Amino acid sequence: MLKVVAPIAPMYPGCPEECDLKLIEAKRAVELAEQEAEERMRAKAHKIIKEMMEGVFQGNMPQNIADEFSQKLNEE
Fold first, then answer.
1. Which SS3 state, helix, strand or coil, does residue 30 take?
2. What SS3 string covers 34-46?
3. Cβ atoms of residues 27 and 10 within 8 Å
4. Which of 5, 17, 40, 76 has the most CB atoms in a 10 Å sphere around its CB?
5. pLDDT digits (tens, 9 = 90+) for 16-55
C-alpha cells in the first residue's frame, strides 16, 4: 500500500483523507473489473461447452452438461 500512497499523497498535500478516499475508490474499481471479467469468462466457458456438446448430444443434454460445468466452476 505504501508504494501506491507515495505517488498519490503529494497530489493532496493538505488533505490526506482525500488520498485515502481515492485509494478506496481505485481498489473498488479494480475489484469490480475483476468480477466482471470473471463473469464474462464463465459465460464464455458455458457457451463453448454447450456448443461443443451440441455436436455430440441432442435435446437438453448439451444445456444440462454446460449448466453442470458452470456449477462446478462456481463451487471453487
1. helix
2. HHHHHHHHHHHHH
3. no
4. 5
5. 566 666 778 888 889 999 999 999 999 999 999 999 999 9
Q: Are 53 and 62 in contact (CB under 8 A)?
A: yes
Counted residue by residue, the chain has a size of 76
DSSP designation for 55:
T
Asked whether the beta carbons of 62 and 47 are under 8 A apart, the reply is: no
Q: How far apart are CA 67 and CA 25, in angstroms?
A: 35
User: Which pTM value belongs to this model?
Assistant: 0.66
Per-residue burial over 24-62, b = 16 or more CB atoms within 10 Å of its CB, e = otherwise: eeeeeeeeeeeeeeeeeeeeeebeebbeebeeeeeeeeb
66/46 Cα distance (integer angstroms): 5
Alpha carbons 65 and 46: distance in angstroms, whole number: 9
